[in-house]
Write a structure and sequence with these properties.
Helix content of chain B: under 10%
Number of helices of chain A: 0
Number of strands of chain B: 11
Strand content of chain A: over 45%
Oligomer: heterodimer
Radius of gyration of chain B: 13 Å
Largest sheet of chain A: 7 strands, mixed
Strand content of chain B: over 45%
């Protein structure tokens, strides 16, 4: 692994289904983030984690949950997907207060 | 709510010209970051400027920060067709984790 990876690359999901987006980094960064980007717009922070074992809410946390069991992994779960969660999801990591490194994104479509 | 707001929303210039993009924000920050995003791709970090810095350079990029006016600018000198992309500013709060992105400036450089 080099940098930060996300899986899956894309997914089509039926409304009401549960979905977990995976994110893994190998840079030993303490901080990790989940963003969503809607067409033609900037990124909005969903949740963040400043270190393993702690998480915090961003700008648009409703409908999403995260966990940070270890330094490397930061999964994002949609408990019951809705069409308004159709978006591109980006994971990022950084040293605290420093440059963020982004994954390639997951394109999610909820029908 | 959007903390960073860029202007212009879109900018079209000829190759060789300079491109200037501006970003305004509302609350106190720890740092401000500029990112580039090519269509359909992830974000690439350009420059991070801390709240106690006024100007930073990286190659053809120059970023300024005016904390009294809560604004920043990104200057790309001698633009190239390959600079065509969307450019985003992002602010991090004094805790260093909550990051807010603007909606971006779409730059088109004509060859």
């Amino acid at each position: 692994i080099a940098g930060i990876t996300q899986a899956p690359t894309s997914q089509i999901l039926a409304a009401g289904r549960r979905m977990t987006l995976r994110c893994t980094q190998d840079m030993r960064h303490n901080a990790m983030y989940w963003y969503r980007q809607d067409l033609g717009l900037g990124l909005r922070l969903i949740h963040y984690s400043n270190t393993a074992g702690t998480t915090g809410k961003g700008e648009v946390p409703d409908g999403y949950s995260v966990s940070r069991a270890n330094t490397d992994d930061f999964p994002l779960t949609l408990a019951s997907a809705v069409p308004s969660q159709t978006s591109v999801y980006f994971c990022a990591s950084s040293a605290p207060g420093d440059t963020q490194y982004f994954g390639p994104g997951t394109r999610l479509t909820v029908l | 709510s959007q903390q960073g707001e860029e202007d212009p929303q879109a900018l079209s210039i000829q190759e060789g010209e300079n491109a200037t993009m501006n970003c305004s924000y509302k609350t106190s920050i720890n740092n401000l970051q500029w990112y580039r995003q090519n269509s359909g791709r992830g974000l690439v970090h350009l420059i991070l400027i801390r709240s106690n810095e006024r100007e930073k350079h990286s190659g053809r990029l120059r970023v300024t920060l005016d904390t009294s006016k809560k604004s920043s600018s990104l200057l790309i000198t001698a633009s190239r067709a390959a600079d065509t992309a969307s450019y985003f500013c992002a602010t991090q709060n004094t805790g260093g984790f909550k990051t807010i992105f603007g909606a971006g400036t779409r730059l088109f450089v004509k060859a």
